[in-house]
Amino acid sequence: MRNLVVTEFVSLDGVMEDPGWTFRYWNDDIAQFKGEESTASDALLLGRVTYQGFAAAWPQSKDEGAAYFNGVRKYVVSTTLDKAEWNNSVLIQNDIVAEISRLKQQDGQDITVHGSATLVQTLIQHDLVDRYRLLVYPVVLGKGKRLFQEGTAATLKLVEARSLSSGVAALIYEPDRK
């Protein structure tokens, strides 16, 4: 069975939307944390907006993560796309919860979800998330899409916490399913 891992850049007030505000904090500590995710994952699960952003950026990128993102299997949840043309991409258009549950039952490494705010809400509502890997930035944005939207209830247990040199906190949580 595979774990479904949600990884997000989050402000102190929980905003995950349009994370351009994170760039000034990027350093080797954050690169290492993100690299650990790639090493443990052999598939991505992405919503349409994140998929389109990644598909526009990664194929031309010279960044050290480009080979991983361009080569890894990508499952794209969308009811509006007709096809997913970026290398190694598969569309999920129908019965999303059942299809993701089926993917989790397969052999393999972690399935990682980057960004994908709307998709993440569905995953949380259906208790499909096995781990949250959060980089919490020392900024308060005041508005924007939040990881845990109003009305979301979850009990989590902290598995790991690291204070990074840039002032960012790297936190890993798992659902407490007692």
> Structural class from helices and strands?
alpha/beta
C-alpha geometry: globular
**Corresponding CATH superfamily:** Dihydrofolate Reductase, subunit A
Quickly name the level 1 CATH class. Alpha Beta
* Widest sheet: strand ordering: 4-3-2-5-1-6-8-7
End-to-end separation: 19 Å
Tally of individual domains: 1
- Tally the helices: 5
What is the CATH architecture annotation? 3-Layer(aba) Sandwich
The number of distinct β-strands equals: 8
Beta-strand percent range: 25-35%
CATH fold-level label: Dihydrofolate Reductase, subunit A
Percent in helix: 25-40%
Order of helices and strands: EHEHHEEHEHEEE
Which regions have little confidence, pLDDT < 50, spanning 5+ residues? none
How confident overall, as mean pLDDT? 96
- Rg measurement, Å: 16 Å
Largest sheet, strands/sense/barrel = 8 strands, mixed
What this model shows, in words?
The structure is a single chain. The protein is of the alpha/beta class. The protein has one domain: Dihydrofolate Reductase, subunit A (3-Layer(aba) Sandwich), CATH 3.40.430. It is globular, with a radius of gyration of 16 Å. The two termini are 19 Å apart.
